[in-house]
Structure formats: structure tokens, C-alpha cells
Design a protein that fits this description.
Blueprint lengths: L1 E2 L15 E6 L5 E7 L2 H7 L9 H9 L2 E6 L3 H15 L14 E6 L7 E4 L7 E7 L2 H14 L9 E2 L2 E2 L6 H4 L13 H15 L3 H17 L3 H20 L8 H23 L10 E8 L7 E8 L2 E2 L5 E4 L8 H13 L10 H4 L4 E5 L2 H13 L8 E5 L4 E8 L2 E7 L6 H34 L7 H11 L2 H6 L2 H7 L3 H10 L2
Helix pairs in contact: 7-8, 9-13, 10-12
């Protein structure tokens, strides 16, 4: 707990991580609870806005003697924690809980055979489980959309027969990975409940317990030689960490005011990273880092991503994506080799016109441990770039950085770790997460295209060219489904073919 002093020295002791802050009066009574992406920046804003603050907040600050804080791993956890703290302390200067009608709840109807998360304005059902209240609908829906990609469930009112879904075929959401297929009996009622319970546990803040249970199930399936199911859980674990860090609650932090601090933090982080990896000193402003990741969820439509950070900041105009050509079965190491070979062989090719490929990276980062790093190092050696371009691997579990040194004729792996909450750790995590996000986005786009093709394969008169035209015109399977008949006829000239398409997608 930090005492509020007139010189504002206490602000420097606040963390820059996500979490909640609590203003307390001298007796320790909680006056106000707030959430923040960056606790220090958010609390500091109360002492710079002055008269621009709401009257109630100005009154609260006059009574407050201390600021306490609770750090969490992500912005979405800050949202959940804020709700729980307000319910616990019922602070005088928080409007939430004073007028529940202006807030929403995430509700699970436990009386249903196949419950799903729903948004509710009031707590009417006695046998339902409620989480909240939350001050805005959009952030809660956004959290649910992200979690649904990890723990799919059917969002339609489907027919049930003998305790299982009785539809003739799965809904459209099944083809884009949002529905588990429970509507058509693809998975059992118990498996559906397992997904729903995982979402509930996330809302209860039981992230670590959820992690451990998923890891146990992955190991069990692996021992039972059910490798495809085990790989899906492995990808869920990976994506769960990404979602945890990337869900945005709202825009309460002024990005413009923080931009200078972000740049300063990026430069500090870059210096710490260079020190850990033992890189030669060079001006930070032009230092180019390229990070690579592979996405092969469910073993199809595998993709690779290359993201670029210059001077510790992202250069999205120089991001590049790769569709894996050489492998049709999951093999992260070989896929990483393919992506790096296709990119790095262009370093010395004068015919290359792509600005991003003409640049020589000062550091290559691969998402993974020793295996991925070894594959990357072999490619650099093959292209005779191992002495020019340093490469490191970032292992997920302990956020360890690996690099390779040659001792005689043997490769020796050297390990480094960052201090928790250091700028260097934040920078390397941000680079890795960005590469993961970019790879997954392209992967899902390809899978969506494949879903369209597979659904339209049996429609007479629809060939590859027509499928490509439909995708180009309407963007996705959902877009084609929602298109009006006259709009479809502008792409597909034959009226009977249009009717057949609408019948298939109905």
C-alpha cells in the first residue's frame, strides 16, 4: 500500500503492468476501484487532469490517503478482478452495483442440456450461473468471441434427440472453428460441457488451474496415442496464453500521451535484449528484428509469419506471410526450415524488389525452443549467413532465450532469462505474440477458404474459378451465405446454380 504524498513520488513505485488499483482512506476503507492496462499510467492520470475529472472523482481524491494495487497477467483478468473487488468492497465512488440495470452479466443456463454463454441484463433465472456485472456489453462479447475460438460451442438453437444434437449436418460456425459440432452429434454432451466449464473457470479467474488440467489431458491423450486430439489441446494451451495477453477491455489509456513512454521502454528493452544475446552495439533506432512463427492448427492449411520490429517498434508494412508448400502433415521444424529458407535466400539476391526481403535482419527470433532454433541455425549455416545474422529461440514455458555457440564441431545451446516485468522481457514477448497473431490470422483465412470450397464441391456448375470469384466478391463463407440472390447472380450468371448455392448454404 502506497501513501499518497504531495510530491507524487509514490507514482514511481507503481507497476506498469495490467491490474487493479484501490484508493483507500486513512482507516483502510476502500473508496474506489479501477482497472488499468498500465497501473502507473492510469493512476498518474488522476493527478494530471485536475479540473477535467468528474466531480465525484475529485471528491474521492480529497478523501484518499493511500493507493493499493493488485497485478494480474492480462487486461481481461483486470476486468474480471475489478468486478470481484467492487462486489466485495462496494466502494462509495463506484457506480457499479448501485444501478445494475445499466450493466450486463454473462449467464449460463444450467437447466439446458447444452448450455452456452449468454448476455443478460438481469439475474432472473435461479438455476443459472452468472458472472459480472460488467459495465459495457462490447468488452464482454469480445472476451467471449476470443474464448469461443479456444473452447468451441454451438450458438444456434439446434434439435436434440436421445441426449445428443440431431441436426443433419453441423452449422456454418463448425466450418470456421467456432462450433464443436455438438449440434450434429460430432462430440458428446460431456465434451460440450467440458468446453463450457473451461469458459466458466476462466471467468472465475482460475486460469492456472485450467492450464494444469489441459496439460494433464494432453499428456493422457498422448500416452493413449491419440496424437491429433493431444495436438489440439497443445494448440489451445498456446492460444490461451495469447488470448490472455491480447484481449482489449477499452480505450481508457490515452495512447498519444503514452507514446513517448512506449518508445523509451522499447529502447531500454532493446538494450537489455542485445545484452542477453551478446549482440554487437549498434544504434537502437535502426536495429531490425525479424520473428518467425508457424501455425498448423488441426494439421491443415499450415502457414508461417514474419513480423518486423525496427528500433523496438513494429513495422507492419514489412510483415510477410507464407503458405507452407512442402509439408502436408504437422512438422513445425521442417516448416520453420522452409519459411526461413524462402526468406533468407533472398538476402543476397539482387533481383529481389520486395523492400522487406532486401533488408538484412540484425537478429532473427524463432518462436520455439531448441528444435526450432536448431532448424533456423542450420538454414543460416547452409546459406553461409550464420556469422552475419544471429538467431535465438524463445521457449514458451519459462520464457527462456536460447542461442547456439560452436564448441569445436559441436553445437552448444546457451540459455538466458530476463527479470520479471523487465522491458527486455516485455519486448521479446510482444514480438513473439505479434508473430503468433499474424500466423494464426492467415491460417484461419486459409481454413475459411477451404470450408467454402468443401461446401460447394457438390454444387453442379461451381468449379474452382467460380469459388474464387465468390470468395473475392463476398470475402467469406458467411458473406456468401448473407448475399442476396441478385448479388450472387452478378458473380454466377446461371440462375439455377445460384439457387443450388443458396440451398447448400441455407
Amino acid at each position: 500500500m502506497l501513501k499518497i504524498d504531495l510530491e507524487k513520488r509514490f507514482l514511481k513505485e507503481l507497476p506498469i503492468s495490467p491490474g487493479c488499483y484501490l484508493y483507500k482512506e486513512k482507516s483502510g476503507k476502500v473508496l474506489y476501484v479501477g482497472k488499468a492496462v498500465n497501473i502507473r499510467a492510469r493512476v498518474s492520470s488522476y493527478f494530471t487532469k485536475g479540473d477535467d475529472l468528474e466531480t465525484k472523482i475529485q471528491l474521492m481524491l480529497k478523501r484518499a490517503s493511500f493507493v493499493d494495487f493488485v497485478e494480474v497477467d492480462s487486461e481481461v483478468e483486470a476486468l474480471i478482478l475489478e468486478t470481484n473487488l467492487i462486489k466485495k468492497y462496494r466502494p462509495k465512488y463506484n457506480r457499479m452495483m448501485k444501478d445494475d440495470k445499466s450493466y450486463i452479466w454473462v449467464m449460463f443456463d444450467n437447466l439446458k442440456d447444452f448450455p452456452k454463454p449468454e448476455i443478460a441484463r438481469e439475474k432472473k433465472k435461479k438455476r443459472a450461473t452468472y458472472f459480472g456485472p460488467y459495465p459495457k456489453v462490447f468488452p464482454a462479447r469480445k472476451v467471449l468471441r476470443r474464448l469461443r475460438k479456444l473452447f468451441p460451442y454451438c450458438n444456434t438453437n439446434f434439435r436434440v434427440k436421445d441426449g445428443i444434437g440431431a441436426e443433419k449436418r453441423p452449422c456454418l460456425d463448425y466450418h470456421i472453428g467456432l462450433c464443436s459440432g455438438v449440434c450434429a452429434g460430432v462430440i458428446s454432451k460431456q465434451e460440450h460441457r467440458r468446453n463450457i466449464n473451461s469458459i466458466k473457470r476462466y471467468f472465475r479467474g482460475q486460469k492456472q488451474e485450467l492450464y494444469k488440467d489441459l496439460q494433464k489431458r494432453m499428456k493422457f491423450l498422448s500416452k493413449a496415442r491419440k496424437f491429433e486430439q493431444a495436438s489440439k489441446i497443445r494448440d489451445t494451451l498456446r492460444d490461451l496464453d495469447y488470448v490472455t495477453q491480447r484481449i482489449e477491455i477499452d480505450k481508457e489509456v490515452d495512447e498519444a500521451r503514452l507514446s513517448a513512454k512506449k518508445q523509451e521502454g522499447a529502447i531500454i528493452g532493446l538494450g537489455q535484449l542485445k545484452e542477453k544475446v551478446r549482440l554487437p552495439s549498434r544504434k537502437a533506432q535502426g536495429f531490425r528484428i525479424e520473428c518467425y512463427d508457424i501455425s498448423n492448427i488441426q494439421g491443415s492449411s499450415a502457414t508461417g509469419s514474419m513480423v518486423v520490429f525496427v528500433g523496438g517498434r513494429p513495422r507492419k508494412d514489412q510483415y510477410r506471410k507464407f503458405k507452407i508448400r512442402t509439408k502436408t502433415t504437422p512438422d513445425d521444424f521442417e516448416m520453420m526450415r522452409e519459411v526461413l529458407l524462402r526468406r533468407l535466400k533472398k538476402v543476397n539476391d539482387k533481383r529481389v524488389k520486395d523492400v522487406s526481403f532486401k533488408k538484412v535482419p540484425d537478429l532473427v527470433v524463432v518462436d520455439g525452443g531448441k528444435g526450432q532454433l536448431s532448424a533456423a541455425w542450420d538454414i543460416l549455416k547452409e546459406l553461409k549467413l550464420d556469422s552475419k545474422i544471429p538467431v535465438v529461440g524463445l521457449a514458451k514455458r519459462e520464457e527462456e532465450i536460447f542461442r547456439i555457440e560452436m564448441v569445436g564441431h559441436e553445437k552448444v545451446f546457451r540459455k538466458s532469462t530476463f527479470a520479471k516485468r523487465s522491458h527486455g522481457l516485455y519486448l521479446i514477448q510482444r514480438i513473439r505474440d505479434e508473430a503468433h497473431r499474424f500466423a494464426i490470422g492467415y491460417h484461419r483465412k486459409l481454413r475459411s477458404k477451404q470450408s467454402v470450397k468443401s461446401l460447394l464441391d457438390d454444387v453442379p456448375g461451381v468449379g474452382e474459378l467460380t469459388k474464387r470469384k465468390l470468395l473475392k466478391a463476398f470475402g467469406s463463407l458467411e458473406g456468401i451465405k448473407k448475399a442476396k440472390k441478385k448479388d450472387l447472380e452478378t458473380v454466377v450468371r446461371n440462375r439455377r446454380t445460384v439457387e443450388a448455392i443458396q440451398k447448400v448454404l441455407k
